[in-house]
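Note to self: keep these together.
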Amino acid sequence: EEKLNLDDSQWEDIHVVTGALKMFFRELPEPLFPYCFFEQFVEAIKIQDNATRIKSIRSLVKKLPRPNYDTMKILFEHLQKIAAKESVNLMSTQSLGIVFGPTLLRPEKETGNMAVHMLYQNQIVELMLSEYSKIFG
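Structure:
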């Protein structure tokens, strides 16, 4: 509802932009990875064989509602570009997983497994970035 002036100097600070992006995703009524998919993605990331793990994640991503899939594809494409410039911005796929994992993917009800969940959330985002073309291609 607010009109934003992206030419305003406040948007020159990358931390403000990143914070706004994270806040947008955090405040959605449901995460980008819908609640009903949380456990399925966690089970998929636990798969030991990398090719099977990627195939499983790809299959889950394809089952997402179309708006979620489309948004996810664009977001991860953008984050992949950020990771490609890691030598300049110090944001590796692992760092991006840490920053965006808990924002994009979370259980509907927080339990005592928060630390374990966080590890899986980070790993899921990291895998999706590092294997973007196999998952979204």
